[in-house]
């Protein structure tokens, strides 16, 4: 191992030690109110895992660990920090290269599940009974894609949470404008308890199913672009790793390292841009979060009760 490689290894160890000390100091300091509010929301890690398929999301911690090991190994082997960063970026970002349409597919499947649930809810809603009773009665027919938020909604209603607060929390859990349309109908019904709820639920089910079908048609056309982008990215990466060794002296200088870093950033930016262009975005929200008093604590109790039952 050369002197330069030992120096870089020492600098990396010092950086990791400094990060560890900072994290230890922060762990003993109480978080201020605004920070606690942000922690309650979906963290960056949760959003990252939400954009991956289930199997990849469960194992992504190991992928990140492997990326860190690869970064250190390539850095020590080549004595070039940018090569290590690029190797870590390729490993950590490979799930998005291989599965570029997870978020779009997930939203379409969720809309289809919402349409089926509304159809079952219309069948369970009997004249003279409350909407809450219909939700509880249709729990066995809830599709698996939305079973968790619906089960939490039913548990909140059963534990005495105000109906309006529970429905708004249900909309916040799913975070989609299509769900907000359904919740607005629920809110209108609990305020006037008017007739015609069965017909309204069936109409909502048909509209949601039509929206899901149209999105699936658009997504099928975008899938061609995603497939081409995936294979272009893989070919570029393979060529970069197989032919990069012949250009080693060019990128060993400080200027070469900076140029390599800029090219890598441009490549990542292009992939992210193409992914956003081909993504199916959620409908704009119609309801703003409106947490009621004690909703956090009641929501936690409802989620624990629902998880303990395992099924209703």
Task: Describe the 3D structure.
This protein has helices at residues 3-27, 33-40, 44-50, 54-58, 60-78, 81-98, 102-124, 131-137, 147-158, 163-174, 177-192, 197-243, 248-251, 254-277, 295-309. The chain has 312 residues and is mainly α. It is 78% helix and 0% strand. It has a domain at 106-208. It is built from 15 helices and no strands. It starts with a helix and ends with a helix.
Radius of gyration: 25 Å
Q: How many beta strands in the DSSP annotation?
A: 0
Low-confidence runs of at least 5 consecutive residues: 33-42, 303-312
Strand content: under 5%
- Average pLDDT, rounded to a whole number, is 77
The helix/strand series, from N terminus to C terminus, equals HHHHHHHHHHHHHHH
User: In which range does the helix fraction lie?
Assistant: over 70%
List the helices and strands and how they pair.
Layout: H1 3-27, H2 33-40, H3 44-50, H4 54-58, H5 60-78, H6 81-98, H7 102-124, H8 131-137, H9 147-158, H10 163-174, H11 177-192, H12 197-243, H13 248-251, H14 254-277, H15 295-309
Helix pairs in contact: 1-5, 5-6, 6-14, 7-12, 9-10, 9-15, 10-11, 11-12
